[in-house]
Design goal:
Layout (H helix, E strand, L loop, with lengths): L24 E11 L2 E17 L2 E12 L1 H4 L4 E9 L5 E10 L2 E11 L3 E8 L5 E8 L8 H6 L12 E8 L2 E16 L5 E13 L2 E11 L6 E8 L2 E11 L10
Antiparallel strand pairs: 1-2, 1-14, 2-3, 3-4, 4-5, 5-6, 6-7, 7-8, 9-10, 10-11, 11-12, 12-13, 13-14
Length: about 260
């Protein structure tokens, strides 16, 4: 399921800014699903960031878990866990997504190495039980759905105008595709914590055949943190929204809070 993720994405060609997060950060979300014109409590999502080591080097460990509510479980059970390790500069080192969605279970796994370019080993356990593996090499950095989220939060968005679009490569267990991030201006958003925030409004767009599909419209704080406050998701089985419920361990003052 592309529920969070998708969240959040920029290219390395942008000018960097001070880091927007730190180890110990936790973001919690409440999700809602549209069912026959009624918004139902769909479940929860939690993202954590910690400072760890990966193969003897300093790294960030980011984990995202989503869990559908008991009411939604009767129609579509979801238990997704995404995990990644990155360098302190947010270059990806490892990624894994284990997804239990309805009657399907599948796993995507990526292992990155850097020697004369970027080398990615892609492993996939399909919902039919097949184990597949392929290897690819690239001249420029390639990201997954979690590492690009960390990278994106540290970039400077000053000077962006409505319609500004960025193309970036995203990998999963089956290959790489060029996705897009499109900026739609600023908007005030009320979170699940009852507070209002000044936000940047962006859309994550993926290719779908000869056309494109907006996967998620998301709203991040217009400050140094770029915290996702709300996500509007277009899923295969309907639409859903996620609202920030709580945050802790935030690196910078939340100046976008009203």
């Amino acid at each position: 399921m592309r529920i969070t993720l998708t969240l959040l994405l920029l290219l390395t060609t942008l000018l960097g800014r001070a880091q927007a997060f730190q180890g110990g950060e936790t973001l919690e979300y409440k999700m809602y699903f549209n069912w026959q014109f009624i918004w139902l409590n769909a479940g929860t999502a939690t993202m954590t960031i910690h400072e760890r080591e990966y193969q003897g080097r300093k790294a960030f460990r980011c984990a995202l878990t989503t869990r559908s509510s008991q009411k939604i479980d009767r129609y579509f059970r979801m238990r997704d866990t995404l995990l990644c390790y990155t360098t302190p500069e947010c270059l990806p080192l490892y990624y894994r997504k284990g997804a239990s969605e309805g009657k399907r279970y599948y796993v995507d796994e990526l292992l990155y190495s850097y020697d004369n370019g970027v080398h990615v080993t892609m492993r996939e356990l399909t919902s039919h039980g097949e184990r597949l593996q392929q290897q690819h090499s690239f001249k420029k950095p390639v990201y997954d759905m979690l590492s690009i989220f960390l990278k994106a939060r540290s970039y400077n968005t000053e000077g962006w105008t409505k319609g500004y679009t960025i193309v970036f490569p995203i990998a999963d267990g089956s290959g790489v595709k060029n996705s897009k991030l499109k900026y739609y201006g600023k908007k005030t958003i009320k979170a699940e914590d009852g507070r209002k925030y000044r936000c940047l409004q962006l859309a994550y767009i993926e290719p779908e055949g000869k056309k494109e599909k907006e996967i998620v419209r998301f709203f991040v704080t217009d400050d140094k943190n770029h915290i996702p406050i709300r996500l509007d998701m277009n899923l295969n089985f309907g639409t859903a929204k996620a609202f920030l419920k709580s945050m802790k361990g935030i690196r910078n003052p939340v100046t976008a809070r009203m």
